[in-house]
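Show me any protein, fold above all:
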Amino acid sequence: MSEAISYNASHLGLCVTDLDRALRFYCDGLGFAPVVRYDVGNEVAHTLEVEGDVRLVSQMIAKAGMVVELLHYTSPDPLGEPSRRRNQLGLTHLSFIVEDVDAAAARLVAHGGTLLADTRASLRSDTGSTELVFLADPDGTRVELMKLDG
Protein backbone atom coordinates (compact mmCIF):
# COMPACT_ATOMS: atom_id res chain seq x y z
CA MET A 1 0.00 0.00 0.00
CA SER A 2 1.46 3.34 -1.01
CA GLU A 3 1.00 6.69 0.65
CA ALA A 4 -0.49 9.61 -1.25
CA ILE A 5 2.12 11.89 -2.75
CA SER A 6 1.44 15.60 -2.94
CA TYR A 7 2.91 17.82 -5.66
CA ASN A 8 2.72 21.59 -5.28
CA ALA A 9 3.72 23.95 -8.06
CA SER A 10 7.00 25.76 -7.42
CA HIS A 11 8.04 27.78 -10.46
CA LEU A 12 8.64 27.89 -14.20
CA GLY A 13 12.15 28.58 -15.56
CA LEU A 14 12.87 30.82 -18.56
CA CYS A 15 16.36 31.21 -20.01
CA VAL A 16 16.94 34.85 -21.09
CA THR A 17 19.76 36.56 -22.98
CA ASP A 18 19.55 39.91 -21.15
CA LEU A 19 18.36 39.97 -17.53
CA ASP A 20 17.66 43.72 -17.39
CA ARG A 21 15.58 43.53 -20.57
CA ALA A 22 13.66 40.51 -19.24
CA LEU A 23 13.01 42.26 -15.90
CA ARG A 24 11.68 45.31 -17.75
CA PHE A 25 9.22 43.12 -19.68
CA TYR A 26 8.12 40.79 -16.87
CA CYS A 27 8.24 43.22 -13.92
CA ASP A 28 7.57 46.66 -15.40
CA GLY A 29 5.31 45.31 -18.15
CA LEU A 30 3.47 42.31 -16.66
CA GLY A 31 3.66 43.36 -13.01
CA PHE A 32 5.86 40.62 -11.55
CA ALA A 33 8.06 41.54 -8.56
CA PRO A 34 11.61 40.35 -7.88
CA VAL A 35 11.70 37.81 -5.04
CA VAL A 36 15.22 36.41 -4.65
CA ARG A 37 18.39 36.37 -6.74
CA TYR A 38 21.09 33.71 -6.81
CA ASP A 39 24.49 34.16 -8.44
CA VAL A 40 25.62 30.59 -9.10
CA GLY A 41 28.25 28.65 -10.96
CA ASN A 42 29.84 25.26 -11.37
CA GLU A 43 28.48 24.02 -8.03
CA VAL A 44 25.09 23.56 -9.73
CA ALA A 45 26.20 22.74 -13.29
CA HIS A 46 25.23 19.07 -12.91
CA THR A 47 21.68 20.00 -11.83
CA LEU A 48 21.30 22.28 -14.87
CA GLU A 49 22.64 19.65 -17.31
CA VAL A 50 25.01 22.27 -18.75
CA GLU A 51 28.60 21.44 -19.68
CA GLY A 52 31.60 23.71 -19.32
CA ASP A 53 32.25 26.64 -17.01
CA VAL A 54 28.83 27.68 -15.66
CA ARG A 55 28.08 31.21 -14.47
CA LEU A 56 24.52 32.47 -14.22
CA VAL A 57 22.05 34.62 -12.35
CA SER A 58 18.85 32.93 -11.21
CA GLN A 59 16.32 35.71 -10.59
CA MET A 60 13.00 34.61 -9.13
CA ILE A 61 10.02 36.87 -9.83
CA ALA A 62 6.43 36.42 -8.68
CA LYS A 63 2.90 37.66 -9.30
CA ALA A 64 -0.35 36.39 -7.77
CA GLY A 65 1.11 33.02 -6.83
CA MET A 66 2.88 32.47 -10.16
CA VAL A 67 6.67 32.25 -9.83
CA VAL A 68 9.05 32.49 -12.78
CA GLU A 69 12.79 31.89 -12.60
CA LEU A 70 14.69 34.04 -15.10
CA LEU A 71 17.95 32.25 -15.90
CA HIS A 72 20.64 34.53 -17.31
CA TYR A 73 23.81 32.68 -18.31
CA THR A 74 27.06 34.57 -18.76
CA SER A 75 28.80 31.24 -19.37
CA PRO A 76 28.11 29.30 -21.48
CA ASP A 77 25.99 31.37 -23.84
CA PRO A 78 22.30 30.42 -24.14
CA LEU A 79 21.43 28.04 -27.00
CA GLY A 80 18.43 27.59 -29.28
CA GLU A 81 15.19 29.47 -29.76
CA PRO A 82 11.85 29.47 -27.91
CA SER A 83 8.86 27.67 -29.41
CA ARG A 84 7.21 29.71 -32.13
CA ARG A 85 4.32 27.27 -32.68
CA ARG A 86 1.84 25.87 -30.23
CA ASN A 87 2.25 22.33 -31.66
CA GLN A 88 5.95 22.14 -30.75
CA LEU A 89 6.69 19.78 -27.86
CA GLY A 90 7.38 21.32 -24.49
CA LEU A 91 6.54 24.75 -23.15
CA THR A 92 4.79 26.79 -25.83
CA HIS A 93 3.62 29.93 -24.03
CA LEU A 94 2.66 31.75 -20.85
CA SER A 95 -0.92 32.99 -20.60
CA PHE A 96 -2.44 35.89 -18.68
CA ILE A 97 -6.05 37.03 -18.24
CA VAL A 98 -6.48 40.76 -18.81
CA GLU A 99 -9.33 43.29 -18.78
CA ASP A 100 -8.39 44.92 -22.11
CA VAL A 101 -6.36 42.92 -24.65
CA ASP A 102 -5.33 45.96 -26.73
CA ALA A 103 -4.21 48.07 -23.76
CA ALA A 104 -2.35 45.15 -22.19
CA ALA A 105 -0.61 44.35 -25.48
CA ALA A 106 0.38 48.00 -25.99
CA ARG A 107 1.91 48.10 -22.50
CA LEU A 108 3.99 45.00 -23.21
CA VAL A 109 5.16 46.37 -26.56
CA ALA A 110 6.28 49.52 -24.70
CA HIS A 111 8.31 47.27 -22.39
CA GLY A 112 10.13 45.31 -25.09
CA GLY A 113 7.54 42.82 -26.36
CA THR A 114 6.59 42.21 -29.99
CA LEU A 115 2.92 42.03 -30.93
CA LEU A 116 2.06 39.03 -33.13
CA ALA A 117 -1.00 40.67 -34.71
CA ASP A 118 -1.85 37.67 -36.91
CA THR A 119 -2.54 35.62 -33.76
CA ARG A 120 -5.55 37.72 -32.69
CA ALA A 121 -8.73 35.67 -32.33
CA SER A 122 -12.22 35.87 -30.88
CA LEU A 123 -13.80 32.64 -29.71
CA ARG A 124 -17.50 32.21 -28.90
CA SER A 125 -19.19 29.51 -26.85
CA ASP A 126 -22.53 28.92 -25.16
CA THR A 127 -21.16 30.43 -21.95
CA GLY A 128 -19.44 33.54 -23.31
CA SER A 129 -16.53 34.67 -25.41
CA THR A 130 -12.76 34.91 -25.31
CA GLU A 131 -10.62 37.50 -27.04
CA LEU A 132 -6.92 36.71 -27.33
CA VAL A 133 -3.64 37.69 -28.91
CA PHE A 134 -0.03 36.52 -28.60
CA LEU A 135 3.13 38.54 -28.16
CA ALA A 136 6.78 37.54 -28.00
CA ASP A 137 8.88 38.56 -25.01
CA PRO A 138 12.29 40.13 -25.77
CA ASP A 139 13.80 36.67 -26.38
CA GLY A 140 10.87 35.31 -28.37
CA THR A 141 9.00 33.35 -25.68
CA ARG A 142 5.31 33.49 -26.51
CA VAL A 143 2.95 35.28 -24.13
CA GLU A 144 -0.81 35.01 -24.56
CA LEU A 145 -3.22 37.71 -23.40
CA MET A 146 -6.85 36.66 -22.91
CA LYS A 147 -10.03 38.56 -22.08
CA LEU A 148 -12.79 36.26 -20.83
CA ASP A 149 -16.45 37.30 -21.01
CA GLY A 150 -19.07 35.08 -19.50
